[in-house]
Amino acid sequence: AGRSAVAKELQLLKELLVNQREHFKSAKADAVQLLSHGETGVAGHLDKVEVAAYTIVSQAILNLDASIWKR
Fold first, then answer.
1. Which has the closest alpha carbon to 14: 61, 69, 48?
2. Per residue in 16-45, pLDDT tens?
3. 3-class secondary structure for the chain?
């Protein structure tokens, strides 16, 4: 069970996405390095800058206290 993000959280996540896109566009090697981890690679037709930016946003969402399971 989760919850919907509040407006401030959505705004912060949108800003994070914009900032990460800008970063990875200017530092494509950083995007390649980030995406080199894991068991599977990124499909060739996908934009590595975009995937890297969304990866960072996903990590931010999963690191929110609300996303951590409580036992």
1. 61
2. 999 999 999 999 999 999 999 989 889 999
3. CCCCCCHHHHHHHHHHHHHHHHHHHHCHHHHHHHHCCCCCCCCCCCCHHHHHHHHHHHHHHHCCHHHCCCC
